[in-house]
Design a protein that fits this description.
seven-stranded mixed beta sheet; 34% strand; single chain; mainly beta; nine-stranded mixed beta sheet
Length: 265
């Protein structure tokens, strides 16, 4: 009986969450902060009123220029641009998103021109869980993690996105200071000029051990690989290629060509 009661309470809780979840529709490109969404609803206002499991959507294409960063604290909701072209622009003045103690899903958004003195020019993820789907993070700048900074106590998953042309001293596109970072089917442009790498990842900070997975993206051309405690090199760095799979033979030399002779000595 006790087990049945607990199960019924759990189902009731799920139903309550579904009933209370709302769809909040942004209907202008203003960066106003009135704290409500009545006749007019800006993106900043939508974020301020969003609660558990709400979905923020848009009724048209918008370029939203930020006056100050968007701080999301103690929230759990989804931002979904759908078929609309939505660009959130830091105007080379402010960071775009700062997540604190939140669970946020972002779909089909373009995040550009964010600026931060320290970490995360485009997105700073602190004590949070971020899922970024089908989005673009580009043209952002910070000291670490020009595009995205993932803290030691955060979990960031990036799916089918483009993270490129960001700038930083360390981790120009992504910097993961521990935490968990998974990148799936995502193009990450690599700059040979950045000494500290396009993705910088540390797998142990203050005793917290985590993992970075790069799966079927531009780094390894469809190979799944887990990388720990270091930088991911560009494809043509002169490093040894991945060994052939077991049971397969390497490609033979083309006809009419001789194999390279062994080096002398």
């Amino acid at each position: 009986m006790k087990a049945l009661y607990s199960y019924l309470v759990f189902i009731a809780l799920l139903l309550t969450l579904d009933v209370n979840a709302r769809v909040i529709t942004v209907n202008n490109a203003n960066d106003s902060n009135y704290g409500h969404c009545e006749s007019n609803c800006s993106f900043r206002d939508a974020i301020s009123i969003a609660t558990q499991n709400d979905v923020i959507q848009f009724d048209a294409d918008y370029n939203i220029d930020l006056k100050e960063q968007l701080i999301i604290t103690n929230k759990n909701f989804t931002i979904d641009a759908g078929q609309n072209n939505i660009t959130i622009n830091g105007q080379d003045k402010v960071r775009v998103f700062q997540l604190e103690n939140s669970i946020i899903t972002i779909n089909n958004l373009t995040i550009i021109n964010g600026r931060a003195i320290e970490n995360g020019g485009g997105i700073l993820v602190t004590d949070s869980l971020l899922t970024l789907n089908d989005s673009v993070v580009s043209g952002n700048m910070a000291a670490s993690g020009g595009g995205i900074f993932n803290s030691a106590t955060s979990n960031t998953t990036i799916n089918n996105s483009i993270i490129s042309d960001n700038a930083a001293f360390a981790g120009e596109n992504i910097y993961s200071n521990g935490g968990n970072l998974q990148v799936v089917d995502t193009f990450i442009a690599m700059s040979s000029s950045n000494l500290f790498g396009t993705v910088t990842y540390l797998n142990q900070i203050d005793g917290i051990v985590a993992d970075l997975q790069i799966i079927q993206d531009s780094f390894k051309s469809g190979k799944s690989r887990s990388v720990r405690d270091g930088h991911i090199p560009p494809l043509d760095t002169g490093t040894d290629p991945l060994p052939p799979e077991e049971g397969t033979d390497p490609l033979p030399p083309e006809e009419g060509t001789d194999p390279l002779p062994p080096e002398e000595g």
